[in-house]
Amino acid sequence: MSTDEATIKLTEIIKQQTDELNQKIEKNAEIQNGLLENIQKTIDYFYELKDGNHISEEAMTKYPLHLDNCKRGINNCIILAERLKSYVSSVNEHHEDLSYMESLNLTLTSMIKEYDAYNFYKLPNEIGSAEASLIIGENFITNYTTEKKKFNQIIVKEIKEMLDEAEKELRDFKILKNILKNLKTEDYYSNESKKYKIAHYIYLGLFLVTLIGALCISAYSICAEPIYFLDNFDYWFLKISFILVVITLVSFFIKQSSHYQSLADQANQTRLEIQAFPTFVTGIEKADEVAIRKELALKYFGREVDKTAHKDMGNLVSDQMKSTTEMVKATTEAIKNLKG
Predict the structure, then answer these.
(1) Given Cys at both, which of 117, 155, 256, 286 links 203, Cβ 3.0 to 4.6 Å?
(2) Residue spans per domain, the chain
(3) What's the angle, vertex CA 94, arms to CA 93 and CA 95, rounded to 5?
(4) For residue 55, what are the β-bridge partners?
(5) 3-state class of 115 per DSSP?
(6) Helix H or strand E encompassing 132
(7) Mind listing the pLDDT tens digit for each residue in 85-124?
(8) What pLDDT score was predicted for residue 45?
(9) Which of 12-21, 63-72, 205-214 has the lowest mean pLDDT?
(10) What percentage of the chain reaches a pLDDT higher than 90?
(11) Residue 9, CB half-sphere, CA atoms under 13 Å: how many?
């Protein structure tokens, strides 16, 4: 899926969700307004009933004190209805599903009645029933709201735990992704480190073998001097030349060993830094991660080759050649003086 297609799809989803939310808000507003209208009608009805409206003259004449005896109950109904109205008005129509309130409309509608001489005697019972219904309606809304809040708290807690777990898995996935992304580079530096280590041990071995061989040959030459009947000039010329060659080789091998040891350590350090990079960049912004990658790229790639070791090798050979020449001259002069 291309970026444009994904954007279009996301736009359609957002539009669909927005339309559903707007429909829900409109439905909730319709339910809430309808219920508030019925509550207000009920309140107006009880005020009118208290003033003697909705009661026939015949009933009032037949039972003149009946209404006065019910006025306390009517006032209670007005108070309860006002309180119910306040509860309904406080409900947020944007986040709640108010369909459960629709059942109260029938209860409120059933409270509005007309009385005549034949049913006026029922007024006390019906006022008491209206009080009970209003209390039940109020408790129904408050209990429903309370239980829903508790339910939402539980759901929010569970969702938070799920989001935390998902965030942890996403963080682990990013680490794994960066590890896989750096794997080839890490393997390259690991192989280079091993290669330099091998070269280091080879030159170290040559250094030790040369040193031990030189000691053995030196010891043998002391014992073999009488056997080969070499004169002093030849003997000391060969011996000094041998010593200088050994010194040159030993110096070369130890410098090469140290050079490759340094390269191996550097490659291994780079490998460790690349290996630790995925964990290091976890949790930082993408732009910061890109900036760090650019900085490391400039650090690891495009550097000039270190020519210090080659320069040291050239200086070593040059110095040893000069030393050999001077030593040969000095030895020749010394032997000539001995013969003279």
Answers:
(1) 256
(2) 3-150, 168-339
(3) 100
(4) 115
(5) strand
(6) helix 123-228
(7) 888 888 775 656 777 778 888 888 888 889 998 888 888 9
(8) 92
(9) 12-21
(10) 9
(11) 6
> Alpha-carbon distance 335 to 340, whole Å?
9
Q: Tokens for 199, please give them.
A: 């070269």
Query: Tens digit of pLDDT for each residue in 220-265?
Result: 766 665 555 555 656 666 677 677 777 777 777 788 888 888 888 8
Judge whether residue 75 has pLDDT over 90. Answer: yes
List CB contacts of 254: < 8 A, sequence separation 6 or more. Answer: 203, 204, 207
Asked whether 162 and 154 are in contact (CB, 8 A), the reply is no
Pairwise CA distance, residues 281 & 293, whole Å: 10
Cross-strand bridge partners of residue 115: 55
- Pairwise CA distance, residues 179 & 281, whole Å: 11
In the predicted model, is pLDDT for residue 313 greater than 60?
no
pLDDT of residue 46 exceeding 80? yes
User: Is-contact 277 208, C-beta < 8 A?
Assistant: no
Contacts of 171 by beta carbon, 8 Å cutoff, 6+ apart: 282, 283
Single out the residue of 74, 25, 32 nearest to residue 53, CA to CA.
Answer: 74
pLDDT score at 305: 47
The CA distance from 244 to 241, in Å, is 5
**Residues whose CB is less than 8 angstroms from the CB of residue 93 and which lie 6 or more positions away in sequence, other chains included:** 25, 28, 29, 32
**In this predicted model, which residue has the larger pLDDT, 135 or 147?**
135
Whether the predicted pLDDT of 60 surpasses 90? no
Rg (alpha carbons) of the chain, rounded to whole number: 51
Give, in order, the Cα–Cα distances in Å from 139 to each of 32, 40, 134, 145, 280: 17, 19, 9, 10, 56
Beta strands in 193-322 (DSSP E): none
pLDDT of amino acid 14: 76
Is there a contact between 181 and 274 (Cβ–Cβ < 8 Å)?
Answer: no
Query: pTM surpassing 0.90?
Result: no
Whole-angstrom distance, CA of residue 36 vs CA of residue 330 = 121
| Eight-state DSSP code of residue 55 | B
Look at residue 300 in the predicted model and tell me its pLDDT.
Answer: 64
